[in-house]
Design a protein that fits this description.
By secondary structure, the chain is α/β, with parallel strands linked by helices. The protein is built from 13 helices and 14 strands.
Length: about 375
């Protein structure tokens, strides 16, 4: 089985590499050879070798249950051996359906996105769909190219997580104009009239800040992401609401806005430690920047949680590995991925008996560990 392979897509002024995952749904056969090679293997070549009809081969490659397992295995093994590459675009034109879903994420290396992708892949397979993944690398330009590419590939629907810097979403309009289902999850456009799946980011920000206050913190700093993004607006709003409820003064100088990477988190920590007054708490809008703060504090001889208590967001693996272990907000990436696919498939199938939730919000929970003085 070939999975997670990168396929170059050529277009006008573009050479874009995107990931194809498990297209079949349980078999994906892809051998990337010389793109100028015109000696293409067809299902008729496979059929002739095995003494089967072309329709039987086609069904076997699609794992049709009407074809017995032995025949399916023989066809699929020979397809790999002969370097058969299915023409999905031609097939989708014939069927008026590709059984492929597009997925745009900022980076697959992000822990939350990797867990969401696992949920997406699992749920898509259940419904007989395959996933093509494109990374925007947090750039609006690449996001636009990916939207154009997926529209050209005639995907049946598109799942998208916007870049941190996307403020204008007009480049998604080809999907909207042509009634191709589009679902945003996690990072979503503000006031988007379509379908969105998010975590309760306001509540997450509130819970994290409230916890620090209840642990005795009176001067709480906040690492915020870029505030054009819905996530970080809501987490900041939750932080402010908790301060207000417990009558802790809001100090704008304690809010550090950056891209929440390890480097940015460490640089912000150095700024904090260079100041005249050390905060006694930090709520970071992701775990990476919180981990960077803890590491920088250790270098400076500042003790966590004795001097500064810290809460992150996302429940990354790093939150469990760092010492002291990091208190954080769990936001259920895997379940969010499953829900995003379920919503998209219902829109594709246009099942009027099923009521699709327009703006679905997942509950979040605080996970208390050592960094906040458990």
């Amino acid at each position: 089985m070939a999975t997670g392979m990168k396929v170059p897509i050529w277009g006008a002024n573009m050479h874009l590499s995107i990931n194809f995952l498990n297209i079949a749904p349980t078999l994906f056969v892809l051998q990337v050879k010389d793109r100028h090679n015109t000696n293409k293997i067809t299902i008729y070549d496979i059929a002739q070798k095995l003494g089967l009809s072309a329709s039987t081969v086609s069904r076997a490659l699609q794992n049709n249950p009407l074809i017995n397992e032995e025949t399916r295995n023989k066809v699929q093994e020979l397809a790999v051996e002969m370097n058969y590459v299915p023409n999905w675009i031609a097939s989708s034109l014939r069927k008026k359906r590709s059984n492929i879903l597009g997925l745009i994420v900022p980076r697959t290396s992000m822990y939350f996105q990797s867990t969401a992708i696992s949920g997406i892949q699992h749920e898509a397979h259940k419904y007989g769909f395959s996933i093509v993944i494109g990374q925007s690398d947090e750039t609006v330009a690449m996001e636009k190219e990916l939207v154009h590419t997926f529209f050209s590939l005639r995907v049946d629907g598109l799942l998208a997580v916007s870049s941190m810097f996307t403020t204008n979403f007009d480049h998604f309009s080809p999907f909207i104009r042509n009634n191709i289902p589009l679902v945003f999850y996690d990072r979503v456009p503000l006031d988007f009239p379509g379908y969105t799946i998010t975590g309760d980011d306001f509540k997450g920000g509130y819970l994290a800040t409230e916890h620090l206050i209840q642990q005795g913190c009176k001067r709480i700093a906040h690492y915020a992401g870029v505030l054009t993004c819905n996530l970080y607006q809501q987490r900041l709003a939750g932080y402010k609401a908790a301060l207000s409820k417990y009558k802790v003064p809001f100090d704008e100088s304690l809010v550090y806005v950056h891209n929440l990477t390890l480097d940015a988190g460490a640089e912000a920590a150095r700024q904090i430690f260079a100041g005249s007054s050390l905060p006694d708490g930090l709520f970071a809008a992701n775990d990476s920047s919180a981990v960077a703060f803890i590491q920088e504090a250790r270098r400076k001889g500042i003790k966590v949680p004795e001097q500064v208590k810290v809460v992150g967001y996302s429940n990354d693996l790093s939150s469990r590995i760092i010492s002291p272990s990091l208190s954080t907000i769990e936001q259920s990436g895997y379940k969010m991925g499953e829900k995003a696919v379920e919503t998209l498939v219902q829109l594709i199938n246009k099942d009027e008996k099923i009521k699709v939730t327009k703006n679905f919000v997942f509950e979040v929970e605080l996970i208390q560990r050592e960094s906040s003085g458990r």
